[in-house]
């Protein structure tokens, strides 16, 4: 049996940088992280074992004189405001791609306010997702969030529209949404859209499908909370129905292992939140059969 780990799977550079920063800062003393540093339970546990303490917004409000790491997803202005009030030192590991998107939305919001325009800011993204909360915050929470193109009825097609996307949304769905709006908005209004999808994620889909097609069996390793893992797993399964989802090597059951033993090529891949070491552990377990 040949076991191959997909070389394109694993942390994107935004997550890699945030984790490196956490490891460096942990050397200097107590460090808190606002929310799970990555949507992968095993990696969160590894850093917790090193001393990283995960907190939520309620904890942040009661914390004083501490150091808090902001993860790659980025934060709304209110988080920086609370930190300033509570003498909290921010270790900002927000991904530069997300920060650029936040700035673009903030500038648009300012422009709308300064010109007294009735324009709407629309964000194509997952409601309640940390990145989207950070993006909504740039508009003082006035943006319209749309999760699926079918929700576009929420938009007033008689007023100007500025459309942005969460960095991890599907490019195809975004294009569908753009066409949907184009077909409905009045000719007299201005519709501007910005494809702000991160190519670190979008470019993985086709590569991952190619990888999956070349394997007899595929083990997809991902966190149960990760939306990126869910999406990439679906793509993988479309390309190769013999794909199974596991969160760690512990979920490689005897049935899965026995099934893999019958074939020549087993591929291991994962999401942008899946650490390489976790995929390596799965490989090790397969090779130890
Ligand atoms: S997916 Fe892209 S935007 Fe999101 S953290 Fe990774 S590199 Fe940054």
Characterization of this structure:
The protein has 12 helices and 12 strands. The protein has 289 residues and is of the alpha/beta class. It folds into 3 domains: 2-9 and 202-287, Cobalt-precorrin-4 Transmethylase, domain 1, CATH 3.40.1010.20; 13-95, 3-Layer(aba) Sandwich (Rossmann fold); 97-199, 4-hydroxy-3-methylbut-2-enyl diphosphate reductase, catalytic domain (Cobalt-precorrin-4 Transmethylase, domain 1). It starts with a strand and ends with a helix. Iron/sulfur cluster binds at residues 12-15, 72, 95, 97-98, 167-168, 198, 200-201, 272.
> Can you tell me the number of structural domains?
3
Which class of the largest domain in CATH terms?
Alpha Beta
Q: Enumerate how many helices there are, as a single number.
A: 12
Strand order of the largest sheet: 1-12-10-11
CATH topology of the largest domain: Cobalt-precorrin-4 Transmethylase, domain 1
Biggest β-sheet, characterized? 4 strands, parallel
**Spatial extent as radius of gyration:** 21 Å
Q: End-to-end span in angstroms?
A: 10 Å
What is the average per-residue confidence, as pLDDT, rounded to a whole number? 95
Shape: flat
The structural class is alpha/beta
**Secondary-structure arrangement, i.e. CATH architecture of the largest domain:** 3-Layer(aba) Sandwich
* Helical percentage: 40-55%
Low-confidence stretches: none
Find the count of extended strands (DSSP E, 2+ residues).
12
Order of helices and strands: EHEHEHEHEHEHEEHEHHEHEHEH
Beta-strand proportion: 15-25%
Question: What compounds are bound to the protein?
Answer: iron/sulfur cluster
CATH superfamily of the largest domain: 4-hydroxy-3-methylbut-2-enyl diphosphate reductase, catalytic domain
């Amino acid at each position: 049996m040949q076991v191959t780990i997909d070389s394109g799977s694993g942390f994107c550079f935004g997550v890699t940088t945030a984790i490196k920063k956490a490891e460096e800062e942990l050397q200097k003393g107590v460090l808190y992280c606002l929310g799970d540093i990555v949507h992968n339970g095993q990696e969160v546990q590894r850093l917790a074992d090193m001393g990283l303490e995960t907190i939520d917004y309620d904890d942040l409000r009661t914390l004083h004189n501490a150091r808090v790491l902001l993860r790659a997803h980025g934060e709304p202005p209110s988080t920086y405001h609370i930190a300033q009030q509570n003498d909290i030192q921010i270790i900002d590991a927000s991904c530069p791609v997300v920060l650029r998107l936040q700035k673009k939305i903030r500038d648009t919001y300012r422009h709308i306010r300064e010109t007294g325009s009735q324009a709407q800011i629309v964000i194509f993204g997952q409601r309640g997702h940390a990145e989207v909360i950070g993006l909504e915050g740039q508009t003082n929470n006035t943006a319209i969030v749309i999760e699926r193109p079918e929700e576009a009825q929420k938009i007033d097609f008689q007023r100007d529209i500025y459309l942005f996307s969460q960095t991890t949304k599907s490019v195809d769905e975004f294009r569908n949404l753009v066409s949907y709006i184009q077909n409905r908005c009045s000719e007299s209004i201005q519709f501007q859209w910005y494809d702000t999808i991160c190519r670190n994620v979008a470019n993985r889909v086709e590569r991952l499908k190619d990888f999956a097609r070349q394997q007899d069996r595929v083990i997809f390793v991902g966190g149960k909370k990760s939306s990126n893992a869910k999406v990439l797993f679906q793509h993988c399964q479309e390309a190769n129905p013999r794909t199974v989802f596991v969160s760690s090597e512990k979920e490689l059951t005897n049935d899965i292992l026995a099934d893999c033993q019958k074939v020549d090529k087993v591929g291991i891949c994962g999401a942008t939140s899946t650490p390489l070491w976790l995929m390596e552990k799965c490989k090790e377990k397969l090779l130890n059969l």
